[in-house]
């Protein structure tokens, strides 16, 4: 009962910090949030996306083909409360809350230790890496939740072999939430299947759910194949992918550099508060001790957070923009779990100072997060306004026609979003430029608006 109350309090703190001023900080939606919101609005209106495709599995959007899970989640909120920042961002809060809960359950399953499980959730809720993404309209939050949920369910198949099917549904939903998981999940599934079904006896006992699961995952690949084969879905990736193995290695290890982790973090203001690392400096010894504790334990399941951490940077390392906090977000829960392992290893092996060590860790996280939040509330809105394309909010909350510069990228989607423009009317009026070499198409005009680079 006591542990449940403690964890409930952790969840309460998480919700308060994520919901507080959720529509005002960041100061506006950025172009992907506007696109997600408007496509959700369009789906909620007539079951078609902004371009008229009915209930698509890939949303064409700007030409980069957004994935469906988060958009359909937002559509539910749009239907209930209308098109606004709450509808766009609250699903990310709820998916992130779900991630917190599933991480707790997963760690408890792995360790049989309630304390490590609660501390993992506590650390993740205060993680600078996780914070901004868990209160803004990022699709990755859905992918993160379903990834950990599916992993947790996979570990429960001893209770019922048919939980494997439910687990596979979770992996497919993650696969259709964010592109990074399209790279990670096949690798992770291979690791899990080798771990669980490495002998013929296990294969024979579970052959039917294994077969159905493999078929289910195979079927989920068909729309992806069609996208890349027939719909030019690879155009965007072709522009951002690396060109050599050396670049991959350099990009991969950049995610473990002290500069990225502890000093400057991701330099994109939409991903991190300027001047803050992805982690706190004092976490370094906890992480090192945590890795030592995991390896020393020689328990196979203890390796799960470490293996996930090693997989996390792979999608980002394949692109030119590295290190990249968003594409490597899977690392945030992994670091949190490893840090919790480290804290409990110190507590258990230095019993004389155990209470002091544990109290120091908890207080350090709390105070560090308080300072982080202060910067987020007082400095971040001004520092990041341009990155969140605040200029377009100012324009389209006042302007309903005229010539608008596309200097800040894709102004048409902000006009549609802020004006709640009828989707069917937009489809009948819109005029387009050809798709750019980045895989994006630009709207030339609709209604009384004209968009120009001048």
Automatic annotation (TrEMBL):
Membrane topology: Multi-pass membrane protein
Keywords for the protein's UniProt record, in alphabetical order: Cell membrane, Glycosyltransferase, Membrane, Transferase, Transmembrane, Transmembrane helix
Compartment annotation: Cell membrane
Gene Ontology process terms (BP): lipopolysaccharide biosynthetic process
Main location: membrane
Entry-linked InterPro entries: LipidA_mod_glycosyltrf_83, RgtA/B/C-like
Residue ranges constituting the Glycosyltransferase RgtA/B/C/D-like domain according to the UniProt record: 68-217
UniProt entry tagged with the keyword Transmembrane: yes
Coiled-coil ranges from the UniProt annotation: none
Statement: the UniProt record of this protein carries the keyword Cell membrane: yes
Protein name, per record: Glycosyltransferase RgtA/B/C/D-like domain-containing protein
Organism lineage: Bacteria, Candidatus Woeseibacteriota
